[in-house]
């Protein structure tokens, strides 16, 4: 029974990852993360973006340069020595197109998240959380495979 649930969770995660990947296909994972971060946080410096997204500062600068060249973000004036970046209409437009396609799945995501939260809460309540960690160990290999396939790393 638990293996069936674990397989369904893994399948759902794969489907969700595939949908996100196809919606943001022209962008690298770092570029997509930076666009999504700017859409939520507003103007940020390259250093702050790097810290939030989890990439190095030089990587963030390189990705931002590509996004700026594509017209997806723009530099803004600042009284400080930093240069904040903002989403342009093209960047927000691409995000909104993705969101329009993804919105029909939000109810399913909410239901799944709620059920998973109740399940994990029950495991914590009966002190069996380590049991779930042992059963879901196979997800590590799936995550590594997804990471390699999405980033092109060897």
Describe the 3D structure:
The chain is mostly helical. It has one domain: Arc Repressor Mutant, subunit A, CATH 1.10.10. Strands 1-2 form a two-stranded antiparallel sheet. It is elongated. The two termini are 35 Å apart. The model has no long low-confidence stretch (mean pLDDT 77).
Give a short overview.
The chain is mostly helical and 154 residues long. It is built from eight helices and two strands.
CATH secondary-structure class? Mainly Alpha
Count of structural domains: 1
Q: How much strand? A: under 5%
CATH H-level name... which superfamily?
Answer: Winged helix-like DNA-binding domain superfamily/Winged helix DNA-binding domain
How is the main sheet built?
2 strands, antiparallel
How much helical structure, as a percent, in the residues? Answer: over 70%
């Amino acid at each position: 029974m638990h293996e069936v649930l674990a397989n369904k969770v893994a399948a759902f995660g794969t489907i969700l990852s595939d949908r996100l990947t196809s919606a943001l296909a022209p962008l690298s994972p770092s570029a997509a993360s930076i666009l999504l971060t700017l859409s939520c946080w507003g103007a940020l410096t390259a250093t702050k973006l790097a810290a939030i997204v989890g990439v190095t500062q030089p990587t963030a600068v390189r990705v931002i340069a590509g996004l700026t060249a594509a017209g997806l973000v723009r530099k803004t004036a600042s009284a400080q020595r930093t240069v904040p970046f903002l989403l342009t209409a093209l960047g927000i437009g691409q995000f909104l197109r993705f969101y329009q396609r993804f919105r029909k799945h939000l109810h399913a995501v909410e239901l799944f998240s709620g059920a998973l939260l109740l399940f994990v809460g029950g495991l914590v309540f009966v002190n069996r959380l380590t049991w779930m960690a042992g059963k879901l160990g196979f997800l590590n290999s799936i995550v590594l495979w997804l990471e390699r396939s999405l980033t092109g790393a060897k």
